[in-house]
Amino acid sequence: MVTILTKQKEQKKLPFISLRWILLGAYLVAGIVPLLLLASTMLHSVQGYFVEERKKELLSQANVISGQVTSSGFLYHDENRSDLEEGILKTSQDEDYRVLILDDSCTVIYDTGYEDVGKTFLLPEVIQALQDKDTAKEQKDGTVYAAASIVGAGNSRVGVVLIADGLTDVHSIIGDIGKEAYLLLGALVFLVLVMMIVISKVFTEPVKSLIGIIQRMSEGHFEQRVKVSGKVHNEIVDLAIACNQMADQLEKVESTRQQFVSNVSHELKTPLSSVKVLSESILLQEDVPKEMYVEFLHDINSEVDRMTAIINDLLTLVKLDQKEIPLNFQETDLNHMMEDIIKRLQPLADAKGVSLQLETQKEVHADADEMKLSLAISNLVDNAVKYTPEEGTVKVSLDADHQNVFISVADTGIGIPEDEVNRIFERFYRVDKTRDRETGGTGLGLSITHSTIMMHKGSIKVNSKEEEGTTILVRIPLKQSAAQ
Q1: Sign of torsion, CA 120 125 130 135?
Q2: In whole angstroms, what is the distance from residue 202 CA to residue 234 CA?
Q3: How far apart are alpha carbons 92 and 348 in whole angstroms?
């Protein structure tokens, strides 16, 4: 004996990422990042405001000193310099900035810092001031230069007052504001995180519950249901309702499957039991007459035929369910098809003394699979004849409008109880269980009919009253769409 071992390929397990962390990440990006950007922008704006105010203040001071220099003749009279220099030095020390006075050749003639007297400063601000464009600009090192021109005779520019001041105090103020802002932002972030954790839990807990129920259903526990509570209608509630509806359908399918298996077992067991009994009767008796052999073999053959019919019908239904039987749609003369059906079943009706009638309103041609549609309608007419007593009537009619074909099969038979009308198309379902052997058949004909009509994109409706009769109305479209 040879044993073949096959190793099942392991399914690659994808990394698990909790929805809660995805939501938290989304909230962080959507909530905290904009707050950080807003805080940074506001601090930058405040810093810019303070810098601009400092530039205006320094330029104003430079203009004041420029006026004092012009009025005192500082550049031309040495005797007036000492008093002005003392005043400028005192102001410089009080305001903590540096003042330089330059002549029109950009040479420093006075410096409160006493470092650059006699040096030439070709600064852009100085040159612009000599061109009558007083200006104040922040340098890359954080120093502000404010330059104001000194007006001489004839409105000429004879020098420049240059004030240099650092922005240490501004940066200190901005730093303090920033600390307070970031402390406040940190507290806000903490509160937002707490809120996000609570909110994400509110959203993810129902989803986790759904996942658990779906996993249990995948193990075969179809009785599981999601508890839908609260008056608020949202996507989570819709998902829970959809999950419960899916569970209902799965439970129904499982119940139908179990009943179907039970019915198949019963339908096949009965003829098998008959075959076994008949064959044992022959084997256990001695000197059995030839006539008995022939009779028993005929019975065995009938039971085998019955099992074959059941199996063939089951295979047909499976293929219809799985769309393995392609429909060959062609323009079909339905009047001719109905006449052939009545002609085939007329002997059965005559044998029972049932009046079988066909009524056609007009010539009807439709796109249909003639063979399968003929089998479906034949099943309806055959059932109507079987369940109609002697002297009864089966009336078949054909009609159409501009869109649909209507085929009606009405009988005066035993009828169907109201609570069982919707079940007659179930497989192996019989309204009257005592008629299983009397009427013959496999119990699958109406299921095949229903599947065939559905594949024709049609519908089938049943109206019935007990002891009065049954009417079945079939509708199929005259034209079938290209995509089937």
Answers
A1: negative
A2: 13
A3: 127
